[in-house]
Amino acid sequence: xxxxxxxxxxxxxxxxxxxxxxxxxxxxVVIKYGGNAMxxxxxxxxxxxxxxxxxxxxxxxxxxxxxxxxxxxxxxKLGKKPEFVDGLRVxxxxxxxxxxxxxxxxxxxxxxxLLEMKGGKAxxxxxxxxxxxxxxxxxxxxxxxGRVTKVHITPVLDLLEKGYIPxxxxxxxxxxxxxxxxxxxxxxxxxxxxxxxxxxxMMTDIDGILRDKDDASxxxxxxxxxxxxxxxxxxxxxxxxxxxxxxxVEAIHKGVKNVVIMDGRVPHSIxxxxxxxxxxxxxxxxx
Length: 287
What we know:
Blueprint: H1 7-24, E1 28-33, H2 36-39, H3 41-56, E2 60-65, H4 68-77, E3 84-85, E4 88-89, H5 93-117, E5 122-126, E6 133-137, E7 146-151, H6 154-161, E8 165-169, E9 171-173, E10 179-181, H7 184-195, E11 199-204, E12 222-224, H8 225-234, H9 241-253, E13 258-263, H10 269-275, E14 282-285
């Protein structure tokens, strides 16, 4: 425990968080988790602690995760070279098996285990369980990379009702039993939309949307849907940020109140976002 704070200061911090706790209790918050915050072990522990803390104060947290680096590791061990078309991973039958093993197996169960060790009650499912994520081929050239066609949200609602933190790996399936690799941001947007979530938090490895991508002080903390189009035209939102922002827009169109893009590498950024005035990252919402 950090000894810089007196007990009185700690109590003051808690009372200041009270309005935010009231605001989010019993509300659904979807967290999309992956990338650097997942690789760094210390950060991973902190993210799990934050999620359990939110769960303990009554926030209905749903964790949607990726696992690109772990997929690359296993492919490397199996001597399989990753292939990309226009920056997207080509996923043949063998690769989709690897993706399923890593995401629905190792990564999912590791996160469930960590949440349980921190005092939470978690249950891991994949998008194939209860046909949560139905998908079809997105582009023939990419193989088993899926486009989401339907979300059957009942399994997630059942887990929330029973008091669990659902931990979801982003594998989809079709009616013929094929498995598909689904983009994590897209899956999170569809799931948050189907839940009518209060908030979707996208944890990335950048501060949020910056007017100047090389200057963290140019963070845009608040953004409406109509402003997004202007920023795309101006080239402020470009490259890899475009699909991420498109997922935010998709989520809001599907009924999510607001979406936050923030740096998952900052310790306790989830708590700063939900339980303080300042927030963290860029919040996207309707006009």
